[in-house]
Amino acid sequence: MALKKARRREAEDGLNITSMMDMMTIILVFLLKSYSTQDISVAPSEDLELPVSSVKKAPEVAVNVVVSKKNIVVDGVPVLNLEHVPDEDNPGQKKLQIPEDERNGQLIEALLDELSKKAETAKDLGQQTGADDHAFKGRLLIQCDKKLPFEVLRQVMYTAGQAQFSEFKFVVYKQE
Amino acid sequence: MAVKRRTKKDEELNLVPIMNLVTILIPFLIMAAQFVQLAVIDSTLPAIGAPQPSDEKPDKPPLNLSLAITDRGVTVMGADAVLYPEGAPEVAEGEDRPPTIPCQSGGVCTSVEDYNWVKLTAKLNLVKDEYPDEEDANVILVPDNQIKYEVLVSTMDAARNDPGKPGADGKARMLFPNVVIAGGAM
After folding, report:
1. Which residue of B45, B48, B145, B174 to mutate against A (max A Cβ within 10 Å)?
2. How many CB pairs under 8 A join A and B?
C-alpha cells in the first residue's frame, strides 16, 4: 500500500488524460462511421414523421416540398397551412385537408405560384450554364408525414404537375 | 524487474496536442453525422388523358396491373386471368366485390400492419410468373382519399420486390418496381 501511494505521488504532474483519450478515440471512430455527405437533410419534428421503406435508392438534390401535418413548405419557405375539419364519412373523426378557399378544385394556388417560380429559376439556370447536369428535369423531392391522407398528397402532386414537375421522389427512412 | 525500471524511466507521453485535435474533430463530425438513412422512391406523374395504345401481342393481352387501396384491403386489378383461372368469384347483386387481399382483422384496417402485405407480395409473385418480362414492371396505385401515406409506401414496398424469394442474381426478386400513382376517384 505504502509503495503504491508513493509511486503515484511521484508521477503526479498534470491530469491523467489517457482514459479520456480512450473515450475520445471511440467517439471519433463512431462519428466517422456515421459521417455522411448526403445532399439532403430532413428536420424531423412532431408534425413530420417520414414512413419507413425497404427502398435503397439514394436521394439527390431537387426542389424540396415538405407536407407536414401543419403546413406545406417549399425549400424552407412556408406556403400554406393545413386545417383539420370534421370528416363527413366518419362522424366524430377529423380529417386533414387543404382549406377550400386556398384551392381551385384540385389545384393549390399558392403552391402552384411558388413551384412555378422554382421551375422558372431552375430552367434559367439550366439555360445559362448550358450543362446537362443543370438542365431542368422536373424533379421534385416530396417529404410527407406518414399519417397524411392521400387526398392532400394527390392535390400536391396534381399542382406540381401543373408547375411542370413530373418526376416525384418520395423521401423515406431507409429500413435498417 | 525490467518492467519496474521502465515505468520509472519513461516519461509520460504528451497527449495534449492529440486531445486538442480530437476535441475539434468531434464537434465537426457530430455536425456531419447522419443518424437516419434516407432513401427515395421514384414515381412519375399520373398520366393525364387517354392511355397510349400499346403494341398488342396476339397471344397475350398486355398487363395493366393496378392496385386499389381501400380501408378494407387491397384489390388487385387487371390480372384476373392469373388470379382466377376459373373466372372471377361470384358477387351478389348490388354488393361490392370484396378486396383481393382483405385486412388481417377481417373488417376495416386499423393500422398499416393490419394490411396483409405478405399475401399481396405472394399474389403479385403469381402475376410476375405469368409476365416475367422487364417491360411488365409497371403498377398503378389507386388509393382511396383517406388512405394514409404510410399505407401507400408499404404497398409500393410490397409490390417492389419479394425478399423471401431470391432471383437469379441472389437479390430479392423484382416484381413491379415502377410505380405510378393514379388520381383515384376525384
Report:
1. B45
2. 160
